[in-house]
Amino acid sequence: MKAFTMAAVLAATVALPSVGMATDLEVTHWWTSGGEAAAVAEFAKAFDATGNHWVDGAIAGSGDVARPIIISRIMGGNPMGATQLNPGKDADDLIAAGLMQDLTDLATAEDWAHILRPASQLESCTKDGKVYCVPVNLHSAQWMWTNRKVFTDLGMEPPKDINELLALAPKLQEAGIQPLSLAQGWPVGLMVNDILVAQAGVDNFVKVYKDRDLAIAGGPEFGKIFETLASIRQYTPADKMVPQWNEAVGLVIQGKAAANIMGDWAGGEFQVAKMVAGTDYDCLPGLGVTPVLNTGGDVFYFPKSADPAVTEAQLKLASTLVTKEVQVAFNLKKGSLPMRADVDLSAANDCMKKGLEILDHSSAVFPNDIQMIDRDSLNQINDLFTEFMANPDMAAADAQAKFVSIIEAAPK
Ligand code: GAL
Q: For residue 329, which of 106, 49, 77 has the smallest C-alpha distance?
């Protein structure tokens, strides 16, 4: 019996020579800002500690640039070992083409369904009952970031919400401070959507994006918000827009702009700048109007490999990403909320505490846009908002009518 076991072990060792040895795994992601790079370094450190080697495949220029590169590499037969994507529909075609590693056995063995929350994130990874990705964090997009000193230097109370900021905007501008900073591309869409959520409420926003309610999209309430956006245009003119989201956050950190509307990943930049939440800056969920958060975030997929050593390393990485220690170390630097409730968050800052509190009220939590509508329609909405915010001659009513037609044409 003993001899048989020994022989079996030897046979397995001979059949799979590289299994159990250090494996290089190229990991692609778009985390290249200061805060993002600090956070992803925690993943790399933890994976290297397993005896494998994280080969960093950072793609500069954020998700809009990285996503098509990642998808075409996998489709084209040149896959990486692992890759970041957002929870939602982005990997559907890759899964349907049989190109992605099935993580179901690992997810079951580690009981992801019970240790990871909210359920929406693992559901986004699950197709036909099989798990294809591991959620690593919960990110929300509905935050306004303000630099307190900018206001106090001018003898103003720092605003508690977007409406107070807009009331102060003319005076800020007079003093040579940009009231709101803005970056080109997807950050415009993010800002417009955040204002829609803050002014029209979560229910109406979800009715439009998820249920495709055209009466609300084209109705008077949304119409009023398009008018508000038209008045915000003067503070964010095209020639003041910066190329990257983190540059727009940087203007607030440097005190050149008073506020920025950006997801909670902006918190990572304030931390790198050694600023303290609630003292040096404020993070206002739901733009301070109603505290809400959406279930954005990041997940990791693992393209299938014919090499069993790679598959083993992929499973090791998937497992490492959701361990308690790694969840805490990564999320504290990333500005996102951890996927597990059973971790030590004594080092959480003000913003993370606010986020965790909202997470306890499920009525204040709503789906990420890519969980409700396809990427192509989202890109069209973003292009429309970009045109509207950059072109002072475009009427609010025209923008609203185009918005309605994109929502109407979006595949269900
Ligand atoms: C999002 C991602 C975040 C953050 C942001 C800006 O798509 O979920 O983790 O990195 O892009 O790069």
A: 49
- Domain limits for position 23: 6-140+296-360
Tokens matching residue 50: 């397993």
Instruction: Give the closest residue (by CA) to ligand 1 atom 6.
Output: 62
SS3 30: coil
**Residue 3: exposure state from Cβ atoms within 10 A (0-12, 13-18, ≥19):** exposed
Q: How far is the CA of 248 from the centre of ligand 1 (A)?
A: 15
Q: One-letter amino acid identity for 155?
A: G
The candidate with the shortest Cα–Cα distance to 183, out of 255, 278, 266, 287, is 266
Query: What tens digit of pLDDT does each residue of 224-262 get?
Result: 999 999 999 999 998 999 999 999 999 999 999 999 999
CATH of the domain at 343: 3.40.190.10
Kindly state whether residue 1 falls inside one of the protein's structural domains. Answer: no
Contact residues of ligand 1, CB 6 A cut-off: 30-31, 36, 62-63, 86, 139, 245, 265, 296, 298
Q: What is the pTM of this model?
A: 0.92
Helix (H, G, I), strand (E, B) or coil at 332: helix
Instruction: Determine contact, residues 23/313, Cβ cutoff 8 Å.
Output: yes
Strands (E) in 244-396, as ranges, are 257-261, 281-285, 293-294, 296-301, 365-366
